[in-house]
Each structure stands twice: as structure tokens, then as C-alpha cells.
């Protein structure tokens, strides 16, 4: 898995590549939490263009980050989601708390 | 019905092996002409079952998971067996959002059930768990 984080217009963007399962869940959580803490941001854009697979372990990390930032009014916006991953989001009910946008710039416009 | 092909693997309970198991399961399923979408569904179901054995059954890297794949004319079947902790109440464990771990989603069995056509769980506390699941192959040829 590859993860990069960047700060743009006060929004943390996380770009992930790989398969989001239990094997990478800890690293994914640590990298995102560190970035949230060090930038002190409220909102998170999750670019999932490079994510070809996700299961409930991956979903758990995303939901966990939402629970961290939501008390301060923060949101998670997912972008560039591959269809098989979007299907898992839908089935899990995660789309109730996280909206999907076509691209990072679409997501940025909505914040 | 007759088994056309069989592959068995013994998997050490390490998170690395979850990906290896689901890729192998996908390659095995590709012997039937499943759609890409169906193969993705199989990958999620296998990922959930193997993850459960690694996390809940053992919780340490020294456990062994037996993974059997059976190919039939019209379906593919996967059997995942651990000799770990076992499940106290299977009906409860299958409920959406039920997890014994507050950090987890409780969606593993939900995904297995939605993505496969058959799901059977046998478990005994202190002895282990066997999860059997199968996906039917719907031929696209019109009859
Ligand atoms: N192989 C197993 N061995 C022991 N317990 C299991 C096993 N598989 C599932 N369980 C139990 O069933 C519960 C529900 O499983 P699941 O639906 O995959 O949700 P999750 O993994 O998110 O907890 C688990 O929390 C665990 O208590
Ligand atoms: Mg699970």
C-alpha cells in the first residue's frame, strides 16, 4: 500500500493506493491520524483512485477516522472511487456519513 | 454432485495471507466463467472469512487455517476451518453490526451472506469454526 498526505486550502487530502484490508489497516490508520493531528485539520478528502479492493477492515478504518473528526464538525469526502469499492461503501451504509465525488476538485468545491 | 477440481491450502494466521488467500480464491473461481463483478464479490467474502480466523479465532500468528476450494459444474465452494476460539452464538455473530471488538464493523458475515449463494457456519467454543460458502455459476447462455 502507498499513502500520501497533503494539505490544500486547509483540507487534508489523503491519496491511497493498494488493497485496503486488515493487513494494511494499522498503517492506514496511523498515517491518517498523524496527518490529522499534525495539520490540525477538520475535513478529510480521501482519494481512492488507486484502491482496487476494500473489505470490512478497510471500512472500519474509514469509519474510525470519521468518528475522530466528526465531533469537531469534520467530514470525510471520498473521490475517484472504483465501482467495486463504491458497491461495498453502499452496502455497508457508509455513504450515510461519507459522500462520493468524482474528483478532488469537485470535493474541494463542496467544502 | 461431482467435484471437478480441488485445491487445499494450509495458511498461517498472518495478515499477509489474507490477500494471498483471496487472490488464490479468485484464480480458482476463474475456472468458471464468472463475471468480474462476481469475482470481486468472492474476493470480499474470502477476505472476511480468512480475516475472522486470523483476528477472532487465533489473534496470534501461530494458528493454522485450513482452506479448501472445490469446483463443481455449476458452483465454486470454499471451506475455511480454524481450530481457534470458536463462536459463542452464531446467530448473534451473523447479525449486521454485531462484533465482539468495538473497533470493528461487524459486517464480515453480512458480506459473506450477500455475496455468496450459500453460507454455513459450524462452531464450538474452544474448538474452532468452519465456514462453508458457495457461489453458483449462472450460465449466460439462454435456454
Ligand atoms: N473464525 C472465528 N472464530 C471466532 N469468532 C469468530 C470467527 N468469525 C467470526 N467470529 C465472531 O463473530 C463476530 C462477527 O464477525 P464479523 O461479522 O466478521 O464481524 P467483525 O469481524 O467485524 O467483528 C466477531 O466479532 C467474532 O466475535
Ligand atoms: Mg470479520
UniProtKB/TrEMBL annotation, chain A:
Belongs to the anti-sigma-factor antagonist family. Keywords: Phosphoprotein, Sporulation. CDD domains: STAS_anti-anti-sigma_factors. It comes from bioreactor metagenome. PANTHER family: ANTI-SIGMA FACTOR ANTAGONIST TM_1081-RELATED (PTHR33495:SF2), ANTI-SIGMA FACTOR ANTAGONIST TM_1081-RELATED-RELATED (PTHR33495). SUPFAM superfamilies: SpoIIaa-like (SSF52091). The gene is spoIIAA_10. This is Anti-sigma F factor antagonist. The keyword Phosphoprotein applies. The lineage of its organism: unclassified sequences, metagenomes, ecological metagenomes. In the phosphorylated form it could act as an anti-anti-sigma factor that counteracts SpoIIAB and thus releases sigma f from inhibition. One of its GO terms (biological process) is sporulation resulting in formation of a cellular spore. GO terms for molecular function: anti-sigma factor antagonist activity; antisigma factor binding. Residues 1-111 form the STAS domain.
